[in-house]
Design a protein that fits this description.
single chain, 227 residues, mainly alpha, Ribonuclease iii, N-terminal Endonuclease Domain, Chain A, Double Stranded RNA Binding Domain, 2 domains, three-stranded antiparallel beta sheet, 3 strands, 57% helix
């Protein structure tokens, strides 16, 4: 199989050349484009998530010999979560080469965080199947780069940190409510309010509910820290 010009350029961006190009084609094919004759990347995503997890667990284990499990776990979660995978996908312009169905393309699929994160995991799996674990490990460590050594002890997400802050003070977990949803269907903007049992609250806007919740939690964390 001969790759398209776009996928050939993508290989250069990730620094890996496929012996079996069909694996890369499958990795960038979303389920909305899959068919009876064309595989999509869902199975590869499942495998890639596990390969990424092993690479990161080993990298963090080797990076800091004195770190406890309690320190390693949040660092690990920060490096393998879908948002981080999506950020890496954006770094290598993975969205530009995705094969999407018409409806997904019209709704801005090339920019969707979840879709990009899934596709990045699928690419990792494709490299693993094509070149073995060492090739996949090299790819992941190269693309994640300084993120591995720079990840902080408090890499837990803001929602987790805020919940722990509240519970340590005898409060129930914070609540999240959607204040507004604006913008077109393909590019919505959500305004989320995060509220503590004590009455303190903060709000934030983002293109996904999950991101807006994280931002609101982060804002509230900063507020209570100052208070």
């Amino acid at each position: 199989m001969k790759l398209s010009t776009e996928l050939t350029e993508f290989q250069k961006r990730i620094g890996y050349r496929f012996e079996a190009p069909s694996l890369l084609v499958t990795a960038v094919t979303h389920s909305s484009r899959g068919s009876a004759t064309r595989e999509d990347n869902q199975r590869l995503e499942f495998l890639g998530d596990r390969v990424l997890g092993l690479v990161m667990a080993e990298a963090l284990f080797d990076e800091d010999k004195s770190a406890s499990e309690g320190q390693l776990a949040p660092r690990y979660n920060a490096l393998v979560r879908k948002e981080t995978c999506a950020d890496i996908a954006k770094d290598v312009a993975l969205g530009e080469v995705l094969k999407l169905g018409r409806s997904e393309m019209m709704s801005g699929g090339r920019r969707k965080q979840a879709l990009l994160g899934d596709a990045m995991e699928a690419v990792i799996a494709a490299v693993y199947l094509d070149g073995g674990f060492l090739a996949a490990k090299d790819l992941v460590l190269r693309l994640w780069g300084a993120r591995v050594s720079d990840v902080k002890d408090d890499a837990r997400d803001a929602k987790t940190l805020l919940q722990e802050w509240a519970q340590a003070r005898g409060q129930n977990p914070p609540s999240y409510s959607q204040k507004t949803r604006t913008g077109p269907d393909h590019a919505p903007v959500f305004t989320i309010i995060c509220r503590l049992e004590s009455g303190q609250e903060a709000e934030a806007q983002a293109g996904s509910k999950r991101r807006a919740e994280q931002m609101a939690a982060s804002a509230l964390l900063k507020s209570v820290a100052v208070g």
